[in-house]
Amino acid sequence: MSKVTIPQLHEMKRNGQKIFGVVAWDTHMAAIADRVGAEIVSVGDTVGKNMWGHDTMFEITMDEMIVVTKAVRRGVKNALVSADFPYGPLQEGPDEAVRAAIRFVKEAGVDLIKLDGAADYPEAVTALTRAGIPVWAQFGLTPQTALALGIPYENQAGATEMDEATVNRLVDEAKMLEKAGAALLDFTNSGPVAGPKAVEAVKVPVIGGFGGGPWLDGRVRLAQAAVGYNVAALDKEPTGYANVARVIHDALNECAGDVRAARQIKGQPGRN
């Protein structure tokens, strides 16, 4: 597989080929996603809440996002690497957004920047594009906007029912973001009515995570959720593709048994 490019993603949309993205937060998960052939490996700002135990998604800092993005970059050879802004740079204005994006490019080697709630900041989309930094513009009921509205992150996927006026507004936002210069769109919680209309209304790919579906140009999935990595999978069978948490639990339990029985652990010299 050769290095993925944004024009290639645009061609995939024109050809009706679906784009696959994975949210990853460490080198090995990113490398696995890259080996699978994901077109995009996205470093989401929800790493603080979903990986590091933060209470909210607003706690993650720019310095922390740089560290985790650098780790992901090391694992990726072919996919496009995207990074989310933490809450702050986008809200502080176009100049601060450009400074933060340049830092992501220079320090972490990202290929594009994903902007949460981009429909409220089209001037930032344009400013980053003019600076030569491709933008993946996220709109709809996004993680940050949902939190501001008091909608729990885990409940967002169900918030896809909308009236005709809302559908029309979201389609207009898709057009506006494309005109502002966005290279890709991330329509969060698009639903099966607004989603297809947005796809048809713009030439750039429309990709979605929560609340998306096969009606979009592609999907992005959180790796931990897809494989059942989180500790919650020990108590409730996950609805994704595997239960990695259970595999890890059982392996560590077996390792503990060897240690407590005074046996050499697997993978170490002297194992019988």
Structural commentary:
The structure is a single chain. This protein has 272 residues and is of the alpha/beta class. It has one domain: Alpha-Beta Barrel (TIM Barrel). It is built from eleven helices and eight strands. It has helices at residues 6-15, 27-36, 47-50, 62-75, 94-108, 122-130, 143-148, 164-180, 191-201, 223-227, 244-260, and strands at 19-23, 40-43, 80-84, 112-115, 135-140, 184-188, 206-208, 218-222. Strands 1-2-3-4-5-6-7-8 form an eight-stranded parallel beta barrel, surrounded by seven helices. Strand 3 (80-84), helix 5 and strand 4 form a beta-alpha-beta unit. Helix 4 runs parallel beside helix 5 (94-108). The longest helix is centred in the middle third of the chain and has 17 residues, at 164-180. The termini are far apart. The model has no long low-confidence stretch (mean pLDDT 92).
- Based on Cα principal axes, name the global outline: globular
CATH homologous superfamily annotation: Phosphoenolpyruvate-binding domains
**How big is the Rg?**
20 Å
Whole-number tally of structural domains: 1
Structural class: alpha/beta
What's the pLDDT, averaged over the residues? 92
The main sheet comes to: 8 strands, parallel, barrel
In the CATH scheme, the class would be: Alpha Beta
Gross CATH architecture = Alpha-Beta Barrel
Specify the number of helices.
11
**Could you give the order of the helices and strands?**
HEHEHHEHEHEHHEHEEHH
Number of E strands: 8
- Numbering strands along the chain, what is their spatial order in the largest sheet? 1-2-3-4-5-6-7-8
Strand content: 5-15%
Unreliable stretches (pLDDT < 50, length at least 5) are none
CATH topology, what is it called? TIM Barrel
What is the straight-line distance between the termini? 41 Å
- The helix content is 40-55%
